[in-house]
Write a structure and sequence with these properties.
Blueprint lengths: L8 E2 L2 E4 L3 H12 L4 E4 L6 H5 L15 E2 L2 E2 L11 H15 L3 E2 L4 E7 L2 E6 L3 E4 L1 E4 L6 E2 L13 E4 L13 E5 L3 H12 L4 E4 L9 E2 L2 E2 H7 L13 H5 L17 H6 L3 E3 L2 E5 L2 E4 L3 H26 L23 E3 L5 E6 L3 E2 L5 E2 L15 E3 L2 E3 L16 H17 L7 H4 L8
Parallel strand pairs: 1-9, 2-3, 2-10, 3-6, 7-23, 10-25, 12-21, 13-14, 13-21, 14-17
Antiparallel strand pairs: 4-5, 7-8, 8-9, 11-22, 15-16, 18-19, 19-20, 24-25
Length: about 425
């Protein structure tokens, strides 16, 4: 590519984000001799460094931690990486592949030009043939609109802002959301002596270990993690399924609502309103828990059937089933913040990616990025989103397959000038055959 106006830097591909996905794409591009630059607003593995709570461990066992030509080689394959270990793993990978990372560089805008794209940062501008957006799926924490009605005496925190129990004001805590993040935070806060109430909506119950094997082993063996985006009937629904109730604990123990109840956490239904100093909860808690129990039982039935068909070399423990989720006969529907001394609400209500700098007509009416398995249009790609190309796309070990397929498409865009299309004319209808 020729140098653009105003002295802009020129390269073939700009990768935005130096997390595991962006670095995996960088390794692919280097292997195919494609000139590129990785732009990172902070440091390598920045979100792992600054946007996670202190005690967090990966939900996937160490044996699943792998990137192209690189994998975990420690002494505890069945353990779970701490945040410092994850940061070290990704940082070492950046050095291993010699990634051309420009740290401390914040992207301000990305817009299309006749020959490709112009990427403006707080340091300089770049012209390129293609852009890969690998800045992650957790850019913005979702906070429901009803949060604005919280009493002034109650502190509101997102899961991205929470670091440790000592950070919170004295008093009880309401954790909203019972997926992986919510149950882990509820457990940690209760272990520190806090009175914790957990608001539960739709959730996925899943044992940490089944028949002696980690549940991730079963999901992998059953081919569930490799299921492709073009193999499901309702992809929108599949991409919105909550993360399972799992924790990367040292003892590989399960963390479900029964375990939290045993520890003294108060379980209530989905938060549906806040007003007059009180929180209101849905009366559907029993139905939500029954549905989660049924789905878990069906999953375990499928694992047992797989074991009978496959005859795995290593012996398995005997099949078992878990006790139904215990729900109070009359679950409480109202919580008075002052009377219950609730001083903090933590929103474990999900995240969405941040593409506020992307100046292109590639969003649906709800502001969600349109893409087909990570391909927005020839020359414009995204990585690391939930169920982007496969169910494992958002995991560290899911990057390799996605990068290989998207990288092949990207090479065609970079090397064939005719591949760049006008986004305004094509974004809404573009359906690549990949």
């Amino acid at each position: 590519m020729t140098r653009g106006a105003r002295g802009a830097g020129a390269t073939d591909v700009i990768v935005i984000g130096a997390g595991h996905s962006g670095l995996a794409m960088s390794a692919f591009l280097s292997a195919h001799s494609v000139d590129h630059v990785v732009l990172e607003r902070g440091e390598v593995a920045n979100s792992w460094r600054h946007e996670r709570w202190d005690s967090l461990r990966l939900l996937t066992p160490n044996w699943q931690s792998r990137l192209p030509d690189y994998c975990y080689e420690g002494a505890d394959p069945d353990g779970f990486m701490t945040m410092p270990e994850v940061i070290g793993f990704i940082t070492r990978y950046a050095g291993f592949i010699g990634a051309p990372v420009r740290t401390g560089t914040t992207v301000r805008s990305v817009r299309q030009e006749a020959a490709g794209f112009r990427v403006a940062t707080d340091r300089r501008e770049w012209c390129c043939r293609a852009v890969v957006m690998a800045n992650g799926a957790h850019g913005i924490a979702h906070v429901p609109a009803l949060a604005s009605a919280l009493p002034g005496s109650v502190r509101s925190l997102t899961a991205k802002e929470y670091r440790r129990p000592g950070q919170l004001d004295e008093g009880g805590v309401l954790v909203v959301g019972a997926s992986a993040t919510g149950v882990q935070l509820a457990e940690e806060l209760r272990a520190c002596g806090r009175e914790v109430t957990l608001a539960v909506g739709e959730h996925i119950r899943m044992p940490r270990v089944y028949r002696g094997r980690d549940v991730q082993w079963w999901l992998n063996a059953a081919g569930i993690l490799d299921q492709r985006f073009d193999e499901v009937d309702d992809l929108v629904r599949a991409r919105r399924i909550p993360s399972p109730q799992l924790a990367g604990s040292c003892g590989r123990s399960s963390l479900d609502l029964n375990a939290l109840t045993d520890r003294g956490v108060n379980i209530v239904g989905r938060l549906v309103g806040i007003g007059d100093g009180r929180a209101q909860f849905s009366g559907t808690l029993r139905n939500e828990c029954t549905m989660a129990d049924l789905k878990q039982a069906r999953m375990l039935d499928a694992f047992d059937a797989l074991a009978r068909r496959s005859g795995f070399a290593a012996p398995l423990d005997e099949p078992m089933r878990f006790a139904p989720t215990r729900v109070p006969e009359m679950p409480r529907l109202v919580l008075d913040f002052e009377r219950e001394r609730i001083r903090t609400v933590i929103w474990a209500t999900g995240f969405r990616p941040d593409f506020s700098w992307l100046q292109a007509p590639v969003f649906d009416p709800k502001g969600r990025l349109r893409h087909h398995g990570g391909i927005v249009a020839p020359g414009l790609y995204v990585l690391g989103l939930n169920f982007m190309r496969r169910r494992k796309s958002s995991f560290i070990h899911g990057a390799e397959d996605d990068v290989r397929e998207l990288g092949a498409h990207l090479l065609g865009s970079v090397r064939d000038p005719r591949a760049v299309v006008h986004l305004k004319a094509n974004a809404a209808v573009f359906r690549p055959g990949v």
